[in-house]
Specification:
alpha/beta; two-stranded parallel sheet
Length: 466
């Protein structure tokens, strides 16, 4: 069972825990890949070398190198499997093993109804036990021990405020990662609610200004209050903060893997943001905080708060209210194409094609003027896939209606949907033809037509026609 993820520290550790948990249950060998050197060019992740994170004996026994020959391995995903089905699969395909990088892989393992009911076989307990068998280096073990050397002054709950690439990077445009993050403008309400129950809050996060602000405003504790400032090494500090969170009674966090590893370390629950106030109450708390104190937050943190609120409320509020929230987000993060797309779709829903078209045209022309490396990021965001499907899929039909009503930029977007999301090349060519009929000299529309036609030619092998 091989864990081969190449993302951040938490992602790699969780894949290792899952793979080793399976290996231990099945009596298989466990192995993992990891780089021999620190990765310094990952903007939002911390990854140190294998030798600094793990003990020599553990590396010698389980490290498979920096990468493996993936052709010799099967891949375990969401399909249910048993020990016997894996054995048969290995015999049939000559597999050396299986790659276990899916975070939900233990849910797919079937071990019989009786064993599945026993506490020792439950995924949460099994992962907690397995984490204790990972052979960490002496420096990592000393760091984890240090986190256990501080006494909390009161019963403590951890609140993890992930930011990184979800809020400050390109992922903020995809509107598909809302479950990974507790929006910073929600933190004050959560801390207050927990305090009313006699619980103190330990806030762990990536944005120092936000952490200092919340401490001063709410009295929440930070990891520095328990000695985190002694760790100049970012990897060791990450282990220290995860170990602190693991000592708390519960963790409030999104689906961030950092928080998940802390819960595995401590064998405790992670509660999602909606668990405290419900969906509508969560959105209301965010909007109330931003109405009173928007200027206290980094513009992208505030914009993400509005984005989170709209995702929670989109199906229960009217277009005008949704537009008001989206306009506030767009004003704070004007280069985010997701807001332009959602605003345009809202106008199309009201049959106000002119205003929706104007938003698309202004944003697309702005991207061209900016000379971005990818000439049209807005089109990629429109059809971006996620593990839930395509996040904008509910708006696709609205673009088709606007396109057929004669609006060329809506037609250009529709061509992208038909080509990239739905695989309907001929329909995409017909749609972009509507754009070119309206504006024959438009360079953007010509580029979209060329892209679709080139793909069509590659598929059928016919010569490219001008």
């Amino acid at each position: 069972m091989a864990a081969t993820r190449a993302d951040g520290l938490g992602g790699r550790l969780l894949a290792m825990v899952n793979a080793k948990c399976l290996a231990d249950k099945l009596g298989c060998r466990f192995g993992f890949t990891w780089n021999r050197r620190s990765i310094d060019d990952m903007q939002f992740h911390i990854v140190d070398s294998v030798d600094k994170v793990f003990a020599p004996a553990f590396v010698e026994r389980h490290w498979l190198g920096e990468k493996i020959d993936a052709v010799r391995f099967g891949v375990l995903g969401g399909t249910p499997f048993t020990r016997d089905s894996l054995a048969a699969d290995a015999d049939r395909n000559g597999f050396q093993g299986w790659i276990c990088d899916d975070f939900r892989i233990l849910r797919s393992f079937r071990q019989g109804w009786f064993k599945g009911l026993l506490p020792a076989y439950r995924p949460t307990r099994s992962r907690h036990r397995t984490f204790g068998t990972l052979g960490f280096s002496e420096s990592v073990k000393a760091t984890i021990a240090a986190a256990h050397g501080f006494r909390f002054p009161r019963p403590m709950v951890a609140l993890h405020l992930r930011s990184g690439d979800i809020i400050h990077g390109n992922y903020r445009s995809q509107m598909a990662f809302g479950d990974k993050v507790v929006p910073a403008p929600l933190a004050r309400a959560i801390v207050s609610k927990l305090a009313s129950k006699g619980l103190a809050t330990l806030v762990i996060g990536q944005d120092r200004a936000t952490l200092d602000y919340l401490k001063s405003e709410t009295g929440a504790f930070l990891s520095d209050d328990f000695g985190a400032e002694q760790f100049e090494d970012e990897t060791l500090k990450a282990f220290f903060e995860m170990a602190l969170m693991a000592r708390c009674r519960q963790i409030h966090a999104g689906s961030s893997v950092f928080a998940t590893i802390a819960s595995v370390m401590g064998g405790i629950r992670v509660l999602r943001p909606k668990a405290v106030f419900g969906a509508r109450g969560t959105a209301a708390a965010i909007l109330d905080e931003l109405k009173a104190r928007q200027s206290d937050y980094h513009p992208l943190e505030a914009a993400y708060g509005y984005q989170s609120a709209i995702m929670l409320m989109e199906n229960s509020i009217g277009p005008a209210q949704a537009r008001g929230i989206l306009e506030k987000a767009a004003a704070l993060d004007p280069q985010n194409p997701a807001y332009a797309l959602k605003l345009a779709a809202g106008y199309f829903r009201e049959r106000n094609f002119g205003d929706g078209e104007a938003i698309l045209k202004a944003f697309m022309l702005g991207e061209i003027d900016a000379g971005t490396e990818n000439s049209m990021p807005i089109l990629d965001v429109l059809t971006a896939p996620s593990w839930r499907g395509r996040m904008m899929a509910g708006d696709f039909e609205l673009y088709f209606v606007a396109a057929n009503a004669g609006y060329p930029y809506a037609a250009a977007c529709s061509a992208q949907i038909l080509h990239s999301a739905l695989g309907r090349t001929e329909a995409a060519l017909s749609m972009v033809a509507l754009s070119l009929t309206a504006e024959p000299a438009n360079r953007l529309f010509r580029e979209i037509e060329l892209t679709v036609r080139t793909a069509a030619t590659a598929n059928d092998g016919s010569p490219l026609r001008s």
